[in-house]
Amino acid sequence: MRVWPTWIRGGAAGLLAVATAAAAGTALEVAAPAEVGVSAARLEHVGSALRAAIARGTIPGAVVAIARRGKLVYHEAFGAVDPAAGTPMPKDAIFPIASLTKPLTTVGALMLVEAGRMTLEDPVERFLPPLANRRVVAAGGTEPARRQPNVQDLMRHTAGMTNGLANGSELERQYHELTAVDRPAADLVERLGRLPLHYQPGTRWDYGVGFEVMGVIIETLTQRRLADYQAEHLFAPLGMADTGYFVPPGKVARFARPFKTDPLTGEPTNARLRSAPPQRDGGGNHCYSTALDYLRFAEMLRRQGTFDGRRYLGRKTVEFMTSDQMTPEVDLGRLWTRGNVYGYGFGLSVAVRRPAVASGMLGTPGDFNWGGGSGTYFWVDTKEELAVVFMAAAPGEIRNRLRQLITSTVLQALE
Asked: What is 174-187 written as a DSSP string?
């Protein structure tokens, strides 16, 4: 039996209450929309669209934060933070951001790449030996992987791993179980090592558990809990005071809850509230944040790795992260079925707009975005000097239409 270090086994090895850590960052400078080329009158379409959605019972509430040319021009809350109680939504509401966790993990990993602790082409087995000698599902059984998945594969969803969102096969069900954070990291690695890959690495984009694995690699390299590492190197210095892997009891009143049932399907929803440290700090799907916290992160990426006088990533690293890395031989079918990104390419954790896009999303070639299954969304348009964060407690399919609404109502306000 492999002996794992305490932080991998799930022990309480110095776990910080990340969301209560002191934040070093200063507030974003506020500007009137007209000062940065935004029409205040046309920007009101954002609020009108969201108030209409709330009145129809589509969503309980939302928060939107918009920065242009590095200045905050819009930060508004709508609806209720708790629809059952009717409590008004505060601007600092805390949301489960779901897959918006992935860009956070990506930046943490790229910091280690820049420090020379690993390279993007390092095989995963270099850091996690139980994941060596991978085999791949094939007709009648399995076959050897033509190459082993590497760090870059984990962060661009080409590692051969899935997470159970597609066809519900027995293998995908087993992969999906690996996303749970109620088991220690060692359990994730040991169980994953017993599963075959879903496809040959580098041949297909498939939303998978790669970021859960990436989180464990960060812990292995730093010998710290992922929460502690991210708090020290990213969350606290950026001023993301309400971002972490659980919601402390003193902040639960600000937690944004969805309707108890999906308004489109009638199916029960999952509030995703965790008010104590998890067994494992999930690198793919398990952070909490506020719109303004995440806007600071988005602005750092828009500014090519700097914010408030501090450099987090090198300019070329951010360029690489946010560039389309999908070569012609990569099957993008599963990316293009994900609602709003039909025809997009993909970088490290973000969808990247190509010059010719079949999606109905407005935008600029080279802009990048991603969304979370809980109803969260962010996008950055470096050409327009724009960073936008939208957060709603909307875990159903309605989130795809909301992203369209936010994108079009924001972009039409630019002068």
From this structure: HHHHTT-SSS-HHH
Torsion 101-102-105-107 (CA) sign: negative
Q: Choose the CATH number for 117-221 among 3.30.930, 1.10.3660, 1.10.3470, 1.20.58.
A: 1.20.58
The string of pLDDT tens digits covering residues 244-279 is 999 999 999 999 999 999 988 899 998 889 999 999
Q: Tell which phi-psi region holds residue 57, choosing left (phi > 0), alpha (psi between -120 and 50) or beta.
A: left
> According to the CATH classification, is domain 18-103+224-411 in 3.30.70.660?
no
User: Dihedrals φ, ψ of 392, to 5°?
Assistant: -140, 150
pLDDT for position 240: 98
Number of helices (H), then strands (E), belonging to the chain: the values are 13, 14
The SS3 call for residue 116 is coil
Rounded Cα–Cα distance for residues 219 and 15 (Å)? 12
The answer for 385, left when phi > 0, alpha when psi is -120 to 50, beta otherwise, is left
The CATH 3.40.710.10 domain(s) of the chain lie at 18-103+224-411
Give the C-alpha separation, 38 to 415, whole Å.
5
Q: Counting every residue, how long is the chain?
A: 415
CA distance 107 to 314: 11
